[in-house]
Specification:
Blueprint lengths: L1 H9 L21 E3 L12 E7 L7 H11 L1 E7 L3 H10 L8 E6 L3 H6 L3 E2 L22 E13 H6 L20 E4 L5 H14 L4 H10 L3 E3 L2 H8 L9 E5 L2 H7 L10 E4 L6 E10 L5 H12 L1 H11 L2 E2 L8 H6 L11 H19 L2
Parallel strand pairs: 2-3, 2-4, 7-8, 7-9
Antiparallel strand pairs: 1-3, 4-11, 5-11, 6-9, 6-10, 6-11, 6-12
Helix pairs in contact: 6-7, 7-13
Length: 366
């Protein structure tokens, strides 16, 4: 069982999250992806369910078709932007919801969704297979689906060639030997960038995180707008000049899984020391006003089921919360899970997000 495997590893792979609020608009045909039912069954025999998601949602065709055929449901996916934008659309349309179910709100935006009362409670029977650590909402309005840890990653070859010890903590990045080596993402425009900011707040406290960032500025930290630029343009592993990057704890095994040539071990490693990573959890909920309550419950049960949960890692690069789901062997071999990731209370995040971002901007980008 995946959770038990994690327990053995730690004692217990993407795309969480900030976006400008966008006005609600009627989705165009290109915004809706429709999964077709099995050819053995006509469309007329299937009931339709609409699921709103963030743009990073993905699912294997055979897994979806199996669910649709078994339940007699045709699922339409409405991709509504990044997480912040999708949450905003769900809130602005709550009196006339655009979908029956909403998947993708994470713990950085959860309190906003709950405070706006967009979800109907549903205590899925599959919750018995999910550890209590992931159950943030006691009223069962938002049910956990997956998680991922945002951590520092480093290029092992750079540190070996330059005879420098790789960083093992956030504090290490302030040392002279790590000057001009770190690239991060702007938390106002990037999901992992925001998560890393939260990691520093959780680790150093609200009184100390700005002093830490001032130290990173003095050590010539590089700031870019998004993860793709940081990882594939600036990171030395992919031809850039910075050997330390903010990415995910799952990035090293993905380097092996998606390598063009077979690898015996990842060329990168993640820093997972206590308080150096931020854990993101994504949730699903049934939108109030849905006329398809029974179908929506079936979809929620399916997202929590072993079948869907095992499909998650290689499609959305995050990890299952169902303790019965099994991981690919490569993950078991190379995945590093932090024993003590940062977990900020979602209400605290809601109350302070904008203030923290403004203070960070004044210190880092002034």
């Amino acid at each position: 069982m995946i959770y038990k495997i994690y327990t053995l590893i730690i004692g217990i792979c993407l795309s969480i999250i900030i976006g400008a609020c966008s006005p609600v608009s009627t989705p165009s045909p290109t915004e809706i992806t429709t999964a077709r039912p099995s050819e053995e069954t006509t469309v007329e025999e299937f009931q339709q369910l609409t699921v709103m998601t963030h743009d990073s949602f993905d699912i294997s065709a055979d897994v979806l078709e199996s669910f649709e055929y078994q339940e007699g449901i045709e699922v339409q996916f409405l991709k509504a932007g990044d997480t912040g934008t999708a949450v905003n659309k769900a809130i602005l349309s709550k009196n006339d919801p655009l979908a029956d179910v909403f998947y993708g709100v994470d713990n950085t935006f959860l309190s906003r969704a709950l405070n706006e009362d967009i979800f109907d409670p549903y205590e899925s029977p599959v919750l018995t297979e999910i550890p209590d650590d992931f159950l943030i909402d006691p009223e069962y309005r938002a049910l956990p689906v997956d998680f991922g840890d945002v951590c520092l990653n480093y290029d092992k070859a750079f540190f070996e060639e330059n005879n420098i010890e790789p960083p093992q903590s956030l504090e290490d990045l302030l040392k002279p030997e790590y000057e001009d080596l770190l690239v991060v993402q702007n938390p106002a425009t990037s999901s992992p960038g925001l998560a890393f900011l939260f990691a520093t707040i959780g680790h150093f406290g609200e009184e100390g995180y700005l002093e830490y960032w001032q130290g990173l500025v003095e050590n010539n930290v590089r700031v870019v707008d998004d993860w793709e630029t940081a990882y594939y343009s600036e990171f030395s592993r992919w031809g850039g000049r910075y050997p330390i990057v903010v990415s995910y704890g799952s990035s090293p095994p993905f380097e092996v899984i998606f390598a063009e040539e077979p690898m015996e071990e990842p060329p990168t490693s993640a820093v997972v020391s206590n308080g150096s990573c931020f854990r993101q959890i994504e949730f699903v909920g049934i939108l109030k006003g849905s006329n398809n309550r029974s179908l929506a419950e079936k979809w929620v049960d399916f997202m929590l089921s072993k079948e869907f949960q095992e499909d998650i890692p290689l499609k959305m690069f995050v990890f299952p919360v169902n303790e019965n789901a099994e991981l690919d062997e490569t993950f078991l071999r190379y995945l590093a899970i932090p024993e003590q990731p940062v977990n900020l209370d979602h209400e605290l995040i809601a109350e302070n997000r904008e203030e923290w971002l403004q203070a960070w901007t004044e210190i880092v980008l002034r």
